Amino acid sequence: MIDIKKTLKKKELSKGDLIFLLSQYNKDERQLIFEKAREVKKKYVGNKIYLRGLIEYSNNCKKNCLYCGIRYNNKKVKRYVVKDEDVLQCADYAFKNNYASIVLQSGEISNKYFVQKISNLLKEIHQLTDNSLKVTLSCGEQTKETYKRWFEAGAHRYLLRIESSNKNIYNNIHPNDIKHNYEKRIQALQNLKEIGYQVGSGIMIGLPEQSIEDLADDLLFLKNINVDMVGMGPYVEHTDTPLYQKKELLLSKNGRYNLSMIMFALLRIIMKDINIASTTALDAISDFGRIEALNIAANVLMPNLTPTNYIANYNLYNNKPNSLLAYKLTNHIEQYKNRHGCSIAYGEHGNSKHFNLRTQKK
Ligand code: 5AD
Ligand code: SF4
Question: Any idea which ligand is nearest the CA of 160?
């Protein structure tokens, strides 16, 4: 106990400290870490929860990540692209319900038609909503030119997870070809930053053959590349993927959940002023996963606005919650908000404080 308190008081946590904290399994010790994360969160980013309405625009993807349910080779998936008018309707819903931000997410497609389509949608969304919505894109690795075009068309933020910062693990969970290249992914993150996006990245927690040391490295990686936002969550197996064969190596759902909560807390402690999303995968392994992450460290929630006729086909992993409609989720959160004084920040963009400071300095 004394050691934990002492460690948590340090200005900088070393890899050794992170490993030590990640190895705490007892309730009381874990609570100390969570308390510290809450304290940091309150001091640096406040207790508000910022909303991003999530639109899962298309499940087409040219990639074959070994863990992902919508990988190219999964022929069981019914592929879709949300119609323009439906995307606009979602944006309008977010606008009218004071979400202030939306996220357009899709599998990785890079043809000219797709690139143009996203640019057009960005422009139309801004026209429809009086330029008042902040838009995040999460459409995978693209050329720097494409990122630039989308930025100019009105995308403000971009999410591109590194998935695992350990190159060996990265190679174990992706096919080893030019489409799935670790260095290219890091370069893409660099390009996004150079263009001027608020940049988000993240990892999966509890992957097969991932150790506590690897997770400590992941935290330090996110700090070193100086991201503005993080979206991370537990790895959740999907039956129709190659990585499912390694399911025997996985921690239990509860184990992955507990590890995820400590990861969220430590991330907040080492990256005090970033935006941290409470991700959907948390709800796939625990009933109150997202709420708990918000109570400890996260400050961003992404209610799913994807029209219900498409939503079931964006099945990244088994048990992905798709029934919790956006208004139900926000109502649900409202009921919990008093627990740690959190409240939903309707009408606020909730830019990453880290981004604001990083760009002011220049
Ligand atoms: N478990 C958890 N997260 C997953 N993702 C894809 N497949 C899985 C899975 N099986 C996440 C990846 C990707 C994001 C779109 O979804 O981190 O970046
Ligand atoms: Fe495609 Fe992303 Fe799934 Fe990989 S994780 S297969 S890039 S949707």
Answer: 1
Query: What 3-state class would DSSP assign to 216?
Result: helix
For the CA of 238, the nearest atom of ligand 1 = 10
Inter-residue contact 206 to 173 (CB < 8 Å): no
Relative to the CA of 68, which ligand 2 atom is closest?
3
Report how far residue 19's alpha carbon sits from residue 166's, in angstroms, rounded to the nearest whole number: 15
**Tens-binned pLDDT, residue by residue, of the chain (362 aa):** 669 999 999 999 999 999 999 999 999 999 999 999 999 999 999 999 999 999 999 999 999 999 999 999 999 999 999 999 999 999 999 999 999 999 999 999 999 999 999 999 999 999 999 999 999 999 999 999 999 999 999 999 999 999 999 999 999 999 999 999 999 999 999 999 999 999 999 999 999 999 999 999 999 999 999 999 999 999 999 999 999 999 999 999 999 999 999 999 999 999 999 999 999 999 999 988 998 999 999 999 999 999 888 887 888 888 776 655 666 677 777 766 656 678 889 999 999 999 999 998 65
CA 232 to ligand 1: nearest atom: 17
pTM (whole model) above 0.70: yes
Is the CB of 202 within 6 Å of ligand 2? no
Cα–Cα distances in angstroms (integers) from residue 90 to residues 115, 305, 310, 337, in the given order: 20, 6, 13, 25
DSSP, residue by residue, 64-91: --TT-TT-TT-TTS---B--HHHHHHHH
Residue 286 carries which side chain, given as an amino acid letter? S
Residues 133, 94: Cα–Cα separation, whole Å: 8
For tokens 């893409």, name the residue: 188
Most ligand 2 atoms within 8 A of CB, residue of 60, 70, 79 to mutate: 70
- Ligand 2 centroid to Cα of residue 67, in Å, is 8
Alpha carbon distance 19, 33 (integer Å): 13
Alpha-helical segments (H) within the chain: 2-9, 15-22, 27-44, 84-96, 112-128, 144-152, 167-172, 182-195, 212-224, 253-270, 281-285, 289-296, 308-311, 326-336, 353-360
Q: What's the rounded Cα separation, in Å, for the pair 16 and 213?
A: 9
